[in-house]
């Protein structure tokens, strides 16, 4: 039985560009899949195909148990979409926007009105409810957009880079909203360029690059694929490096790498913090003074680098990406 | 994966026509609210036709020969049907620009992901434009009356015929907004839709009987003018208003202007609505 969102071999070309090159996805009901990849990887195109906005050239897609290609209208009744750009009418008030969307979901006018009031309250927009949306801040618009996607409490939600362009505070707020939503049993497909975001919100992560899913699994599984934990030691004196390397070799699960100029030694390990204490004790016994020691867990950045040969952000062009890449 | 079972009912709720009408009205309401919040668009939409009425009346009036007379009063009464018809068609450009703007903003993605009637976004927009056009036409008629235009100046007419003339004008305007909608969907930037929505209207409205007597044109030009759908509505309006300068040509649309105007408008709606809705469905914003 396929999940609430299921895709098999989705292909979409635009002219010479193969935007999707056989995307496979399976998102179990009530879980969150983070679709992670750089700009132009095919994240948005995937979402557009699954939300009936775009017809794939080939492949199969089933959302909420309905074939997307054969019954797009039935799919539309079961999904909510919150896009990259807050899709609200800026001349309409928050309330008018939500009422309109509710009615277009085929709710009765009165029910749509009640639901709009509820959502405005829930999304902290009640005070601004009767102002045109163009007077809203970026964060407020995103919240309104998300509220619009939730008008009918759809069982399946799609969010295309929901926090792109938001400041950290607003991003945090939106994460809270998303978490609350998912705890209510909604199935969510979320695209993001932020590795931290996928780590934070998603049960499973699918890494996409050049229109293909190149890896999938839980955040921990993906991290494990890059070699798991490592211990990093910076010794105080260069002369001690050989001895330190010997000590680490005794604890490590692989080759010790030595960086001469930084006096840093790295070794892959299993066993975590307990092992770290043992290493410190052993180094101490041998009289090796250390400047720094730590257990380093791989980040999704490392995952991306090892999978694609470039970090997640290098393909991006806008400022946000630049900042992430420096980190 | 043929084992997929479809658990969600697939049939659309309600009958499709009722749903289409309802959704169109919801979208129309949205566009009317927008218009009320951006009144400058409506006001600028009024200035141009009013300027035309005043300029044409006082600049050309007295120099143009209408039905063998150069009387300024005759030209004035001749002119208004043409200006009215031109005004309703020029509203097209705004319609296209509005749709292009929507496509641009990503709001269309929201609409396209909702379980609403497929043509409703466009139908709603064109209906809202129709309301605006009716408003513009009303103001324009008042201005025309102020500068001395009168119905029944060239024969008899009655209230029913005058209303019928306005009805034909609005139908023509509505038909043309579908052309504007298609342009708006094709170009996708509001600026291009405004200029692209306007340029073709000049030949269409000037290669006609709107401002001059087609009898004075060279024969090939006259044929184009007499078969121009726009001319049929102008002629029908003149006939129903009982204003001077009606064409005596034997071209079929000039001899049966009311029927021709109706047929042309319905045909334009049928063709361009189909094309526009198809374009909308396949559009990727």
What features would you describe in this structure?
The complex is a heterodimer of chains A (327) and B (285). Chain A contains twelve helices and 14 strands. Chain A has 327 residues and is α/β, with parallel strands linked by helices. In chain A, strand 1 and strand 2 form a beta hairpin. Chain B has one domain. Chain B has helices at residues 16-37, 39-60, 72-105, 107-112, 120-146, 159-187, 190-199, 201-206, 219-227, 229-241, 252-255, 257-282. The two termini of chain B are 31 Å apart. Mean pLDDT of chain B is 89; it is low at 1-11. The interface between A and B is large, with 41 and 35 residues. Chain A: It is found in: Cell membrane. Chain A: It is an enzyme of class 7 (translocase). Chain A: GO terms for molecular function: ABC-type xenobiotic transporter activity; ATP binding; ATP hydrolysis activity. Chain A: It holds the Pfam family ABC_tran.
Quick summary of this structure?
Chain A has 327 residues and is of the alpha/beta class.
The pair of chains with the biggest contact is: A-B, 41 and 35 residues
Largest beta sheet of chain A: what is the strand line-up? Answer: 6-7-8-3-9-10
Low-confidence spans of chain B? 1-11
Provide the residue-averaged pLDDT of chain B.
89
SS elements, strand count of chain B: 0
Query: Helix and strand string of chain A, N-terminal first?
Result: EEEHEEHEHHHEHEHEEHEHEEHEHH
* Span between termini of chain B: 31 Å
Estimate the strand proportion of chain A.
Answer: 25-35%
Helix content of chain A: 25-40%
Largest sheet of chain B at a glance?
none
Oligomeric state as shown: heterodimer
User: Roughly how many Å is the radius of gyration of chain B?
Assistant: 21 Å
Structural class of chain B: mainly alpha
User: How do the SSEs of chain B run, as a string of H and E?
Assistant: HHHHHHHHHHHH
